[in-house]
Design a protein that fits this description.
Blueprint lengths: L5 H6 L26 H6 L1 H5 L16 H24 L1 E2 L5 E2 L17 H15 L4 H10 L4 H13 L5 H16 L3 H10 L4 H8 L4 H16 L7 H14 L4 H13 L11
Antiparallel strand pairs: 1-2
C-alpha cells in the first residue's frame, strides 16, 4: 500500500487497512465498492479523505453545548453574588431599606457594656419634655413602660424637678389658662383633666381656683351666644336641652347653665318655665 494513502485513512477515522477491504473505521460503515482490491482503495481515497462533520453543539464533549455551559456558569455566578450581597446587607424590613442584624458575636460592639439606666432615663425625659410639657406622673409612667429601673427613674425625676424642668404647679396653671380660654372648659372639667394627668389634689385645687365664678359665667355666656343662632329653628325646650348639654360637657353646673340660657332666650323674647327639664 502506498505511504501517502495512510493519512487519508487515519483522517477518516478508520485504520490503514480499510482501503484493502478490511473492516471500516469507527463510523461503522463498510466500503462495498473497494471489494478488497488496490484499485478500489484508490478510487475511494477522495471520499475517505473528507473529514467527518463534528457536532460542535456538545456531542464531542459528552455534555451540554459550550454556549449553554457558559451561560449556565454566568447565571450560577450571578446567583451566588446576589445571595452573598443579600446576606451581607441583612434582613429586609416590611417598610423601606435593610435592617441590621446586630453586632457580630465577639466583635467590640457586642462586648460593649450596657447603657447606664440613668443615662437612658435622662434621654427619654429630655425627649418627652422637648415635645410637650409633661407632669412628673406622666414622665414616670413613660419610664416604666420602657423598663427603666425604678431607682434610676426616681433619681432622674428628682434631679429634673430640682432644676425646674419638671413643675406640676406651673403645668397646672398653664393648663387651666389654655383650656379655659381656648376650649371654654369650666373648673370641674379642668380639674378632671389635671387629675387624669397625675397632678395631686392640692395642686389641682389651687390651679382651678384661679378661675372665679364671674369669669366662668362670662365664658358660659359666650359659648351660648355662639351656639344660639344655629338653634333658632327649634322650639324653646329643644333649644334649651341642646344648649344645656353643650355646657354640661364642658363642665358647667346645671344651675349656671340654666341661668345663662334663660338670659339668652329672654333677650329674644322667649320666656322659659321654671322647670328646667
Amino acid at each position: 500500500m502506498p505511504l501517502d494513502d495512510e493519512p487519508a485513512a487515519v483522517l477518516s477515522g478508520g485504520s490503514p487497512d480499510a482501503s484493502a477491504g478490511g473492516p471500516a473505521g469507527v463510523d461503522g460503515t463498510v466500503d462495498g465498492t473497494a471489494g478488497g482490491g488496490a484499485s478500489g482503495g484508490a478510487s475511494d481515497d477522495r471520499s475517505a479523505a473528507r473529514p467527518r462533520a463534528v457536532d460542535w453543539g456538545g456531542s464531542l464533549f459528552g455534555g451540554e453545548p459550550e454556549e449553554g455551559r457558559r451561560a449556565g456558569g454566568r447565571k450560577k455566578r450571578r446567583g451566588g453574588e446576589k445571595g452573598s450581597r443579600a446576606a451581607g446587607r441583612g434582613r429586609r424590613s416590611s417598610g423601606a431599606g435593610w435592617l441590621p442584624e446586630g453586632p457580630d458575636d465577639g466583635s467590640p460592639a457586642a462586648s460593649a457594656p450596657e447603657a447606664d439606666p440613668e443615662s437612658v432615663a435622662r434621654a427619654i425625659v429630655l425627649r418627652l419634655l422637648t415635645m410637650a410639657p409633661k407632669t412628673r406622673a406622666q414622665l414616670a409612667e413613660a419610664l416604666r413602660k420602657r423598663d427603666v429601673p425604678e431607682e434610676a427613674a426616681q433619681a432622674v425625676l428628682d434631679r429634673f424637678s430640682e432644676l425646674g424642668l419638671i413643675n406640676d404647679e406651673a403645668f397646672a396653671e398653664a393648663w387651666v389658662d389654655s383650656r379655659h380660654h381656648g376650649r371654654g372648659l369650666a373648673r370641674r372639667a379642668l380639674a378632671a383633666e389635671l387629675r387624669h394627668r397625675g397632678v395631686d389634689g392640692d395642686t389641682v385645687k389651687e390651679a382651678v381656683e384661679r378661675l372665679d365664678s364671674d369669669q366662668e359665667a362670662e365664658t358660659a355666656r359666650r359659648l351660648v351666644d355662639r351656639k344660639l343662632a344655629s338653634t333658632r329653628s327649634l322650639d324653646p325646650q329643644t333649644r334649651t336641652r341642646r344648649l344645656a348639654g353643650m355646657l354640661a360637657r364642658k363642665g358647667y353646673s346645671s344651675g349656671l347653665a340654666y341661668r345663662v340660657i334663660r338670659e339668652a332666650l329672654e333677650q329674644e323674647g322667649i320666656d322659659l318655665e321654671d322647670d328646667f327639664s
